[in-house]
Amino acid sequence: MKVCDRQFTMSVLLFAMSAAVFLAGLYVLARRTGLAGIVVLLGTAAAFLLWFYRGKRPDLPPEGHSARWISGD
Predict the structure, then answer these.
(1) Signed CA dihedral, 40, 43, 48, 49: sign only
(2) Quick check: 47 and 54 in contact, CB under 8 A?
(3) What is the torsion angle, in degrees rounded to the nearest 10, for the CA atoms of residue 49, residue 55, residue 61 and residue 63?
(4) Is 24 helix (H, G, I), strand (E, B) or coil?
(5) What is the pLDDT of residues 18-70, one digit of tens each?
(6) Which pTM value belongs to this model?
(7) How far apart are CA 45 and CA 39, in angstroms?
(8) What DSSP letter does each residue of 20-56 carry, written as one string?
(9) Alpha-carbon distance 44 to 67, whole Å?
(10) What angle do CA 12, 31, 22 make, to 5 degrees?
């Protein structure tokens, strides 16, 4: 049994390359648009995170109700 096979190595390299390209793209975009672009990027990310984590979640019970129904007891 190999510790690190070829498919795993290729997957890690592909992920590293795509992450580097993405981060380089963000850097170039921020450099070209200046402070306003950075503020818009961070504001968009913050708005998405607020929407995602503050929204109603179907896997949780409504506020004020017990979560016993989730466990199946």
Answers:
(1) positive
(2) no
(3) 110
(4) helix
(5) 999 999 999 999 899 999 999 999 999 999 999 888 877 777 767 776 666 55
(6) 0.58
(7) 10
(8) HHHHHHHHHHHHHHHHHHHHHHHHHHHHHHHHHHHS-
(9) 33
(10) 15
Question: Cα(20)–Cα(1) distance, rounded to whole angstroms?
Answer: 31
CB-hemisphere CA count at 13 Å for 72?
A: 0
Closest CA to 30 of 13, 45, 42: 42
More confident residue, 45 or 1: 45
Cβ burial of 41 (10 Å; 0-12, 13-18, 19+) is middle
65-72 long-range contacts, CB within 8 A, separation 24+:
none
**Rounded distance between C-alpha atoms, residue 9 and residue 15, angstroms:** 10
